[in-house]
Amino acid sequence: MCGIVGYTGHRDAAPLLLEGLQRLEYRGYDSAGLALVGGNRDGLVVRKLAGRVAGLVGQVAGEPVVGNTGIAHTRWATHGAPTQGNAHPHVDCDRRIALVHNGIIENADVLRAALEQAGHRLTTETDTETLAHLIEDAKADSLEERVIAALEHVDGTYGLAVVSADEPGKIVVARRGSPVLLGIGNGELFVASDASAILEHTRSVVYLNDGDIAVLTPTGYHIVDSESHVQVRAVDDVAWDLEAIELGGYPHFMLKEICEQPETVRSTLRGRLLFEQGCARLNGLNLAPQALAEIRRIVIVACGTSWHAGLVGRHIIEALARLPVVVEYASEYRYRPQLGLPGTLTLAISQSGETADTLEAMRAARAAGSRVLGIVNVVGSTIAREAEGGIYLHAGPEIGVASTKAFTSQIVALTLLALLLGRQRGLSLEVGQDLACRLAQLPGLVDRTLALEPQVKAIAQEFADARNFLYLGRGVSFPVALEGALKLKEISYIHAEGYPAAEMKHGPIALIDADMPAVFVAPRDDVYQKVVSNMQEVKARGGRIVAVTTEGNGELRGVVDYQLQVPATAPLLSAILTAIPLQLLAYHIAVLRGCDVDRPRNLAKSVTVE
Ligand code: AGP
């Protein structure tokens, strides 16, 4: 879950690498480093430190490094504490080879023992360092042949880039399990974990597949497999522009992305609503109507916020299409025996499209004979490329580690799928047309919901010192409660739990007192009255209540301490609106607590390791 970037060409590499690292910092930010070849010294120059990329920029400014070829890394530690020593790049005994890596070497301990046995001196606690010494140990001529030979011994995942003082100008890149792409410039080439690092210089990218080894020199590149057979990969064009990955005047990407939701919901809907037919058009599914009709059950696999969206999707698909849906934690599902039941459709939901657990759960389902579709935001990501078809969110790049706009767009995408499946399974034209209209109204309703921000900010003031929170809801609002709790945990480090409101009396109610704020997600739907009773139970025990409910609901005065009223919409769609005040509440509490909202501790945007 690190970020790697590389450059070879005619320009000074250091500033390009540092700028690329800054754009990749949302992938990991506990230490950083770079290595340059062929500069003013014969050999390799390495600079690295514990801490943010900004520190590395300062270090390089103090001690400039020159060279036209280099690699760089921003880290999310898996093996070895985030220290200067464990920061990447890692080098071999003679400091002739430098390497940056994203992924986990699972047999590193065995490799380390063998290398030390062979006389290598390994100085760090990382799994990655073994790779540099394996390459040094490999008996072959060219750097790429040595990399191929070294990787034969490796179990695990990697996206890596290697340079050698003996072959200035060359970068060797390899991929298995972790995303890497090449950027094709004019007389120059880039390597990056994702396109945001190089978008300033080129939109032409080549996504590497698992098993690919790419060899880059200033004059060109080629790709081979582990048998050195040449591989041909398409050159794609990145759709979004630089502005999409800039703050655009906002203090944080999270707030920018929360405020983008009227537009991102509109983008997810664009061209997909068939009002006349009361249906949805989802060309990317690549499934013929017959194949859609053969679906008997749906298994959703996902992690984190995407898993919460899956839970909301279950309600909507079961209600509209009368198909049974199970929502699985991908990390658990991938290791469970696959039942291989006929008529199973597996939906992999992932903003980044690179989450290792979701990818492997999708692969396991496919191996067991299931059809697999992806609901993904990042175009060209691994899940998107490996799924048989799917739905792109078109929500634009999500930089803030805490996912926000992807959540609401995921629910919109799931609703479109439910509408399509439902209309095929007896859902009436009227209901379909009504839902299509309600969906089309959403961007305006989201805009009105964002106007609650000043009220949310005031409530955040009240609770910024809280140590615990309980989020409660029923039906489609239960996953929203889970999501609200996750947002608060992620960025403010306050312990928070989401719970089905009715479950509270089976235990968590013991936690209720004046110091335990309870946030109820309570739109006026068919379980609303039940939720009000749960509020009474909290009130009776001195708990303080914040309620997210529907506009015009005057009933809660005297029951709750604070209420945030979102516009009315179809009950099945309420989650798209009720989630937004919870995103804002977490955001403002975190800001008041002085937390680094976009780079919350211990987290990273895309979890590409197990
Ligand atoms: C959400 O705010 C977190 N960043 C995290 O839980 C995330 O949702 C999870 O890692 C799944 O990511 P994905 O959607 O990119 O697969």
Summary, kept brief:
With 610 residues, the protein is of the alpha/beta class.
Keywords:
alpha/beta, 610 residues, seven-stranded antiparallel β-sheet, eight-stranded antiparallel β-sheet, 18 helices, binds 2-deoxy-2-amino glucitol-6-phosphate, 22% strand, 27 strands
Describe what this molecule looks like in 3D.
The protein is an alpha/beta fold. Helices cover 34% and strands 22% of the residues. The protein is built from 18 helices and 27 strands. An eight-stranded antiparallel sheet has the order 3-2-4-1-10-9-11-15, covered by helices on one side. It has a seven-stranded antiparallel sheet with strand order 5-6-7-8-12-13-14, covered by helices on one side. α7 (261-269) packs parallel to α13. The chain is globular, with a radius of gyration of 25 Å. The termini are close together. 56% of the residues are buried. The mean pLDDT is 95. Residues 303-306, 350-352, 355, 358, 401-403, 490, 606-607 line the site of 2-deoxy-2-amino glucitol-6-phosphate (AGP).
